[in-house]
Write a structure and sequence with these properties.
heterodimer; A: 166 residues; 72% helix; 0% strand; B: mainly alpha; Helix Hairpins; 3 helices; 71% helix; elongated
């Protein structure tokens, strides 16, 4: 393994850990942006250029901005006096540790059977575009419909509703 | 750590990220940070797709499948984030808080 991989993995994991552990919500949003960037770099290292740049555009460009807007609109940046972790944090931590134990155990057990190395895939953006309007045209249309519905739904849900007499 | 397979290292990083996201979603009080934890979990799944795609057999006629799955998954995650954060803002207007321990009734 290359030292670059360890650096990127450390960046990603550090950003994710900081996003989960930091007290100030705005700092958490910045840390999760760092984790998204690390993800994009991992995609680029895996020769998935299109997915890497889509990750940067969508996660850093859209999702992180959405999260920051939501924090500002809800005044959530100030930490509550009762702490940032819920009452059942120990149970949640145990569940997460158990899930990681199972996943890690299965990966280490099967590591010997995994491919050592293979030729880098030669996939260009042109191939992806042709596949999107050819073989994957139905999923593409469904995703387009889903995104339209989600945008309209999000606007309707977050619309300011007038006080109705009860 | 001497992994014979680079794929195993990527899978391990993805598993760790998934566990961190799950821990965040299960332990934080703020609803926005729970959504951030869910985004981290979705990202970890995408990393698995891309890693398996990269170390799969190439060239083959289905060589785009893993990449396509990751791209559609990113699009669905974006829709999920938009609706989830819209819901959080709507709940904040109603309950004046995003503290999940204090949002404990379903009546408006």
């Amino acid at each position: 393994m290359h030292v670059v991989f360890f650096l990127i993995a450390a960046l990603t994991l550090g950003g994710a850990l900081a996003a989960v552990l930091l007290k100030n919500t705005v700092h958490c949003a910045l840390a999760v942006t760092l984790a998204f960037l690390g993800h994009a770099l991992l995609f680029l290292r895996l020769d998935a250029q299109f997915a890497g740049f889509a990750q940067i555009l969508i996660y850093i460009g859209a999702v992180a901005i959405l999260v920051v807007f939501a924090i500002l609109l809800t005044r959530g940046s100030e930490a509550p006096a009762s702490g940032i972790f819920s009452k059942t944090w120990l149970l949640g931590l145990l569940i997460a540790a158990a899930v990681f134990a199972v996943l890690g155990w299965s990966i280490i057990e099967s590591a010997r059977a995994l491919a050592v190395d293979s030729a880098a895939p030669q996939v260009t953006v042109h191939d992806i575009g042709v596949a999107l309007v050819g073989r994957y045209v139905l999923p593409l249309e469904i995703v387009a419909l889903l995104l339209t519905a989600a945008t309209i739904g999000a606007v309707i849900v977050a619309l300011h509703e007038k006080e109705r007499p009860r | 750590m001497g992994f014979a397979s680079p794929l195993a290292a990527y899978l391990l990083v993805a598993a760790l990220l998934f566990a961190i996201g799950l821990a965040g979603a299960l332990t934080r009080r703020n609803a926005i940070l729970v959504l951030i934890g869910i985004e981290l979990m979705l990202n970890a799944a995408n990393l698995n797709f891309i890693a398996f795609w990269r170390y799969g057999p190439h060239p083959n006629p289905d060589s785009l499948t893993g990449m396509m799955f990751a791209i559609f998954s990113i699009a669905v995650a974006a829709a999920e984030a938009a609706v989830g954060l819209g819901l959080v803002i709507s709940i904040y207007r109603h309950a004046k808080t995003t503290d999940l321990d204090r949002i404990n009734r379903m009546k408006g």
